[in-house]
Amino acid sequence: MKLKYINLIKAKINIKNNKVSFNYLNGIYKSMYKDKSLDFNNLKEYEITDDIKDINWKSSIKTNKLLVKKYIKETNKKVLIVIDNNISMNADTNKGENKKELALYAAGTIGFIAINNNDYLSILFKEEEPIFKRNINHLEMQLENYNNTKTNSSSINKIIKKITKTNTKNYLIFIITDVKGINSLEINNIKMLSKYNDIFTININDNYIYGNNIYNINNKKYIPSIFSKNKKLHELEINIRKELLNKNSSKLNKFNINIVDISSIEELNIKIIKLLKEHNK
């Protein structure tokens, strides 16, 4: 199979030669799960399913909380990338790049590094069972399928909901969506999924409704210039967006899920590194 998408990603993002990125992306994202055969790192609050023998009494006394060892799995991981294919992904970011294309590059970057790390990989953009493989042709085929599939009105929350029903455990799950997609995520689904999996979220930024010839993807109409050129409305939009992003971050952080905002392909490497570093603090 000709690696059309992989070669484009390698050329645009320079992940082939960026040693700093590979040091972080290959080494830092290790899943944390309780398993007697594994080494442990860091601590977490005690849950009824934890073994009492894993309680760190010294740290528990200092914090007045029951803390147990949190283990790190060193074997090959299952990396599941969930990409939003909602109609809103047809729009552009605030830096003028197509959101769906940017989502594809984000998935391709994470997938390429997962494969090079000898991990199993699956990409989902609709409600179906994940198929995990660890070869570059599998990644290329899944990227091509995503790019060739027309956007629809389905919510990414439906995909997440289906995943929670498959008894998913010990996965690294990357959710690539936008503000609309994050807002659609139900707390119960996220809570259940984050209990046994590590979750990372990439928010593809929306374009502002300020300027000339602003097109509304949802109702397929141009926004009247009386609104799109109004500076006060633009300032209000910026403030509302900031509040929404902060709200979404707080919503996810409760379950140890970090989020980064991306507007362009140029930002991908540094933002993915930031996402992984924040998760492993």
Task: Give a structural overview.
The two termini are 39 Å apart. The strands form three sheets. The chain has a five-stranded parallel β-sheet, with helices on both faces. It has a two-stranded antiparallel ribbon with strand order 1-2. Strands 7-8 form a two-stranded antiparallel ribbon. The chain has eleven helices and nine strands. The protein is an alpha/beta fold and 281 residues long. It has helices spanning 4-13, 19-27, 57-63, 99-116, 136-148, 156-164, 179-184, 187-196, 225-228, 231-253, 268-279, and strands at 39-45, 67-72, 78-83, 120-124, 171-177, 198-204, 215-216, 221-222, 258-262.
Descriptive key words:
globular, 11 helices, 9 strands, alpha/beta, five-stranded parallel sheet, Rossmann fold, 2 domains, 281 residues, 43% helix
